[in-house]
Amino acid sequence: MLLFALAIAFVPQTTFAADMLGASKAKKLAQQGGYDANTTNTTLAANIGKVIAVALSMVGTIFLLITVYAGIVWMTARGDESKAESSQKMLRNALIGLIITLGAYSITAFVIPQIIGRSSTGGTCSLGSDCEGKMIGASCGDRFCQVKSQSGDVITCECT
Predict the structure, then answer these.
(1) The pTM is what?
(2) Which pLDDT score, from 0 to 100, does residue 13 have?
(3) According to a count of CB atoms within 10 Å of the terminal CB, is the N or C end of the chain lower?
């Protein structure tokens, strides 16, 4: 309760501090320069990645619910072979669905960044704090390593 009260007490100061740091001035300058003031640095790929993450978490929740339900049905079958068989089939199908979902996640998380990295310039980031040594297009958290500049064999990347 005390933590909740402290959180509410400090919210107005936090927003006031953000405005003091120039957030409103930056938005005004962006509008004067012809840019949309509400634009963020999030790329389309990052947004798609977030949608995929939400979808996969929903699929995981559905798998958990189906597994619990099938387990309850199996435990309460009381010797009824048709109920036990039905719940075993449900568990088997849920497990197959989970394997397919994990396969899809593996493809989106590991294979596609490798393909993108090899097809863009075919290189590895030489410099860049989060991307050093990674393939171009590889994920770094919820973002991706992209080329910032290139000079000869030296590729400087940043996580965007």
Answers:
(1) 0.48
(2) 47
(3) N
